[in-house]
């Protein structure tokens, strides 16, 4: 299943996300990941990679939640930075934790895991895809 999402705090609108109920954690394709301190707090700076046919890069900064060891379906363990940012899907918005990792060999740059789905109180019908309309960027007045 796939859906359109926004990550407005990171300035990213109209991302294709793969819904993966078999994955616990959500992840975002990122490179050039650099932890840093801001006002005594841990932050991370990274380049998000968007799009599948046309590659776009977007430089982001976000507070660092933690560093987590993630085990892949093949059993490989990788240490990843974790951020939390608001995500919109359809008319809903809620905070989602994303691990930052290289997904350049994957078709979808964003993967939504089961924790994000449960927190957002979403019901998944695997027979359907792109149930929500593609998001549009709104100006400050709220008009499309």
UniProtKB/TrEMBL annotation:
Swiss-Prot/TrEMBL keywords: Hydrolase, Protease
The keyword Hydrolase appears for this protein: yes
GO biological process, alphabetically ordered: proteolysis
GO terms of molecular function: peptidase activity
Domain (Retropepsin-like aspartic endopeptidase) ranges: 2-135
InterPro entries documented for this protein: Asp_endopeptidase, Peptidase_aspartic_dom_sf
KW Transmembrane (keyword) present: no
Domain of life: Bacteria
Record's protein name: ATP-dependent zinc protease
């Amino acid at each position: 299943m796939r859906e359109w999402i926004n990550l407005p705090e990171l300035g990213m609108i109209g991302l294709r996300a793969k819904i993966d109920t078999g994955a616990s954690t959500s992840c975002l394709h990122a490179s050039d990941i650099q932890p840093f301190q801001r006002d005594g707090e841990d932050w991370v700076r990274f380049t998000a990679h968007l799009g599948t046919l046309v590659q776009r890069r977007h430089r982001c900064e976000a507070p660092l939640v933690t560093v987590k060891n993630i085990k892949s379906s093949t059993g490989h363990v990788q240490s990843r930075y974790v951020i939390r940012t608001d995500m919109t899907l359809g008319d809903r918005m809620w905070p989602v934790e994303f691990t930052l990792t290289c997904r350049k060999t994957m078709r979808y740059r964003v993967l939504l895991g089961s924790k994000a789905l449960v927190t957002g109180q979403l019901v998944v019908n695997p027979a359907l895809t792109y149930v929500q309309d593609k998001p549009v960027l709104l100006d400050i007045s709220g008009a499309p």
